[in-house]
Amino acid sequence: MSSTDFSSLNLKPDLLKNLSSLGYESMTPIQALSLPAILSGEDVIGQGKTGSGKTAAFGLGLLQKLDVKAFRVQSIVLCPTRELADQVASELRRLARSIHNIKVLTLCGGAPFGPQIGSLEHGAHIVVGTPGRIEEHLRKATLKLEFVTILILDEADRMLDMGFQDTIDKIIEKIPSSRQTLLFSATYPDEIADIACRALKNPTILEAPAVHEEDTIKQYFHLTNTDDERMSALRLLLAKHKPESALVFCNTKSDTQDVADELAHYGFYALAIHGDLDQRERDQALIRFSNGSVSVLVATDVAARGLDIKDLDMVINFNIAHDAEVHVHRIGRTGRAGKHGVACTLFSDRETHKLETLDIDLSNVNDPLPSAIYLDKPIKKPVMTTLKIDGGKKQKLRPGDIVGGLTGKDGIPGDKIGKISVAGNWSYVAVSSELVKTALKKIQNDKLKGKTFRVRILS
């Protein structure tokens, strides 16, 4: 018997029999790593992407622990979207087929509230839902969590991206501290570390092996002797590679704005970030870039310092960095978390000596630029578009209200909603560009929290 066989685990016989009937024999890497710790009652942080088998991992853990005869909520699974919650609930029901009279209930925004109250009155063992709607039921005392023994945070990084950190904290306050907590996330940013520190006790941290090659950054160096050549080279590189996110470095504030303006003139979705911008302009530029509704951010080293930008496809040094350490720091922003990144540096004949100070092998520079034909090709539109809502925390607007408002009747699917940022008097939400008109009408025609808010496309 292999150590990756489900039969090697100390699972209830009915669960093992059902797994066999479902065709589950060998565990995936994340299951093999996490299930022994989960079944022994440990808190676990599991890093694994969608499709890694994490639902079965935490599903078997909560089903093993469940007392079917005690008809009360014993497990709660928090998911970022209604679609994921439905998938998780469906998978839990499949895994629980051999357990009689088990009830799995989904509680998500975008669905009528009344029928959910009725379902809760009839009781449930497992609740799967979105943070906003779960917290609403807790506030209205229609859901009680005092008997919960296991809490699962699924796709935790996505929930934090959508602005649910405060909501999750409020939910956790209502769950006994003696619970077991399992957190699953595709990435592990600082915010995840913060919530893990507050919500988990001495967690075992596990990362499923990457299914791709080691992190690599492919560097290119392009000779451009005039300002016009340099600008054309930048346009060619962006047009050929079509990055969903590219960071362009300039050495001065004025160059940063000029380059961003020039790119915008040629139809690129580009913004500048530098010290002369006021806080509102800076915030909007960062929000639009980080949520995928702007493809190119042009920045100085100072302005880019401290930016937490994940999954950068490309870095372009429009100007050469002042020293080797800065150069390494710039290009190190791409090619993270097992992904491949591209880093291009533009230089002139007069700047060749600067490359030497960067420890660049000069025999390996002057890569050919893409063909000029790329300038005639259509520019790729960002996959997301940002909506600005004239309401925020002071109007008691929360991320869950925005998700619920967008996903209700005649709305958009929850998995088409990106990052949500809620400030004092405004909120930003990224939605799939192909559905932005539907999203706009939904908020314009319906109310959020019983109030009408002005909303517009940010451009």
List strands and helices in order, with pairings.
Layout lengths: L12 H9 L7 H11 L4 E4 L6 H12 L9 E4 L3 H14 L8 E4 L5 H10 L3 E4 L1 H9 L10 E4 L2 H6 L3 H9 L6 E6 L4 H10 L4 E4 L8 E8 L3 H15 L4 E4 L3 H13 L4 E4 L5 H12 L5 E4 L1 H4 L9 E4 L6 H8 L8 E8 L4 H6 L26 E6 L9 H9 L9 E6 L4 E6 L3 H10 L9 E3 L2
Parallel strand pairs: 1-6, 1-7, 2-4, 2-5, 3-4, 5-6, 8-13, 9-11, 9-12, 10-11, 12-13
Antiparallel strand pairs: 14-16, 14-17, 15-16
Descriptive overview:
The chain folds into three domains: 6-207, P-loop containing nucleotide triphosphate hydrolases (Rossmann fold, 3-Layer(aba) Sandwich), CATH 3.40.50; 216-376, P-loop containing nucleotide triphosphate hydrolases (Rossmann fold), CATH 3.40.50; 384-457, RRM (RNA recognition motif) domain (Alpha-Beta Plaits, 2-Layer Sandwich). The chain is built from 17 helices and 17 strands. It has helices at residues 13-21, 29-39, 54-65, 82-95, 113-122, 131-139, 156-161, 165-173, 190-199, 227-241, 253-265, 279-290, 301-304, 324-331, 352-357, 399-407, 436-445; strands at 44-47, 75-78, 104-107, 126-129, 150-153, 180-185, 204-207, 216-223, 246-249, 270-273, 296-299, 314-317, 340-347, 384-389, 417-422, 427-432, 455-457. The strands form three sheets. It has a seven-stranded parallel β-sheet with strand order 3-4-2-5-6-1-7, sandwiched between helices. A six-stranded parallel β-sheet has the order 8-13-12-9-11-10, sandwiched between helices. Helix 5 links the parallel strand 3 and strand 4 (126-129). Helix 3 (54-65) packs across helix 4 (82-95). The longest helix has 15 residues, at 227-241. It is globular. The N and C termini lie far apart (59 Å). InterPro entries: DbpA/CsdA_RNA-bd_dom, DEAD/DEAH_box_helicase_dom, DEAD/DEAH_RhlB, DEAD_box_RNA_helicase, Helicase_ATP-bd, Helicase_C-like, Nucleotide-bd_a/b_plait_sf, P-loop_NTPase. This is DEAD/DEAH box helicase. Belongs to the DEAD box helicase family.
